[in-house]
Amino acid sequence: MFKMARVVIPTLVILVLALSACQPQTPVDEPTEEVPTQAATEAPTQAATLPPEADVIRIGGFGPLSAPGAYRSGIEMQQAAKMAADEINAAGGVLGKQVELIFGDTEGLPERGTAVTERLITQNKVVGLIGEYHSGVALTEMEVAHKYGIPVVFSEPWSDDVTGSGYPEIFRISPSIDYYSSIASKYYAEAGFNKIVFIQEDTDYGHSSGDSITAQLAGYGITDVQNFYADPATEDFTPILQRIMQDPPDLLASGVTGMGTYRMVRQACELGLAPTATTAIYAADAQLPEYWENVGDCGQYALFTYVGLPPSLYNDKTRAFLDNFEAQYEIRPGAHAMEAYDSMYLMVEAIRTAGSTDPAAIIAALEAIEYDGVLGKIWFEYGSQNPVPSDVPAWMWHQFPTPSVYLMQYTEVNQPFEEAIVVFPREVSTGPLYTGPQP
Amino acid sequence: MQYFLSLCVTGLVMGVIYALMALGLTLIFSILKVVNFAHGEFYMLGGYTSYFLLSAFTGLHPILAVLLSGLIVGVIGLIFELVFLRPIHKGKIERPSEYAVLVTVGLSFFLIYLSLALAGPVPHRPASFLTGTVSLGTVNVSAERLIAGVFSLVLLGLLLLVINKTWVGKALRAVSQDKDAASIVGINPLAMNSIAFAVGAGLAAIAGALLAPIFSVTPDIGAAPSIRSYIIIVLGGMGSIQGSILGAVLIGLVESLGTGYFPDPSRALNYKMVFGLIIFAFVLLFRPRGFFGRKET
Fold this sequence. Notes:
Oligomer: heterodimer
Mean pLDDT of chain B: 93
Largest interface: A-B, 58 and 57 residues
Number of helices of chain A: 14
Low-confidence stretches of chain B: none
Helix content of chain B: over 70%
CATH topology of the largest domain in chain A: Rossmann fold
Distance between the termini of chain A: 67 Å
Largest sheet of chain B: 2 strands, antiparallel
Strand content of chain A: 15-25%
Strand order of the largest sheet of chain B: 1-2
Structural class of chain A: alpha/beta
Shape of chain A: globular
Largest sheet of chain A: 6 strands, mixed
CATH class of the largest domain in chain A: Alpha Beta
CATH architecture of the largest domain in chain A: 3-Layer(aba) Sandwich
Number of helices of chain B: 12
Strand content of chain B: under 5%
Number of strands of chain A: 15
Radius of gyration of chain B: 19 Å
CATH superfamily of the largest domain in chain A: Response regulator
Structural class of chain B: mainly alpha
Number of strands of chain B: 2
Radius of gyration of chain A: 22 Å
Helix content of chain A: 40-55%
Number of domains of chain A: 3
Distance between the termini of chain B: 47 Å
Order of helices and strands of chain B: HHHHEEHHHHHHHH
């Protein structure tokens, strides 16, 4: 029997590797720390020995590709960045060289973020970095990038401190928490939600988000605001929802990303807490295609945020990206994928403009860049040539100043995302400010 | 009072489902003397199996899918036991304790990445048993949870019946108490090992399939239930079936009431598992063997 085990173990290992290789749509075959996406067989150690004048320009990517990180989103970010790299190479590369994306798995852990960034810079010799989903991880990655002077375009972390650090190497195209809160709080005030309960992630992002939205709502005279914190992997929200039911709010909002939100939406609905005629519900990540499968009929009337152009404002690049991504990976990607895709193009455009891979030249090019991407026109208003004035928040340093943020709502069961109502800002809204169940 | 009762019902229902999973782990430990580090992944496999069965056979009743999931994962567990764990009990492994840890941890990683490869990173949810709420006096409970709880309760009752009243159950208990003595009276301990592992894996899968419509399923979903099961079996007394059931219900209740009454509501949900650990620490302080643990002979 033991002999049999010695045969079966390698067979099983080969089987799982083979299965992984047969699933190009789901790059779960890449749980390793660094994943070269162009030369799949190239080991990081080999890359380290290549001279800087090699025929490829290496760009590092990072994000969560495995638990406990938000790997569902991280994998899509990796796929989108790879798509951008492939397109760039098909069009002739940059500075006469091919672009190679080397993507590191941070597992959503700050310490892994540090290690992955260190390896990408010192061993893989990347000339720029893009990506990241988790704020807490980005805050450690930026320290390493700053130490080595390597430019970073962060795709998705929202913490104000990312660009608030004022590091010359750090750029961001996603909204900051403060920016997002200013839009969301204005909407909540206009919609008449005076008593709000937030269930936030117990992460750097969640706590910053709770503090920011509470402060901004106070500016509109809304002071009956409670923030409850939960691990993003929480399964059962029922006991805390039963507690909230003792004094129901006007709005129950889940800032927990991914499955945590879906669970909360279903459990609040099953308890009869929300959505009701008196309590609205907000669900982060409701824009993702798996939303309806996971919440069922309970998903009707959910409010959610969409970062990126809403379907009514898609440009040609947005449509082409979405179609190509769906054709290649058989799923409609989330906004985080669009951000990763644009980040990759931004970095390459900066290298092209700079005419070299010198970090200082790339940083100068990024400061001056104006790029039309799938998220619309991207630029960085404040930088070394135009310092952040004292009356402007410090996080505006190297920050894309106007990322598209829309509040949307599903008004029907199984409503496609493309048909969801844009409720805010009102200038581009496609329906009423809020639609709720009848009493 | 109604609030208190609501929390109690929530805790009891979850506790009964926790018991199902913990019972599987107990059964494996008490018979094979192996801590199964892949138990959470059998739970995850149960959820996925139910999801794929219901997707493939649209007319299939969700409860039947739950039972089939238990059966399919039980067979997977049986094959794993025959191939990888039997050599331990045949004396073919030089360092059996270390081997058991490595091989079950290896299985855990294998199943997580296999699921990721086959099902992808996106969460899936099988069809519900029943939607809506059920009123138990003044307390409203989700119909889905209530069915999952009642189903678990019935299954636990049947298991206790089998373990206490049938020859197989008595043989399993005999092997758990003294393998050599059991052999002398004609019981095949190797066969009992296989039965225990298959049933244990099947129970974890049934728990996973029961909870999948409530919590959805992803490749990494087994971690929390598996940690909770280890706490429960130590609390109840390693290898004790009654202890596992009592420990599970207690953990379910403490988690629910603790979250409901913790003075700082903003942190209550985050400390949910901590409430169980506090009880765990107190019980071990005053009764290191757990509720029904036996003294080592």
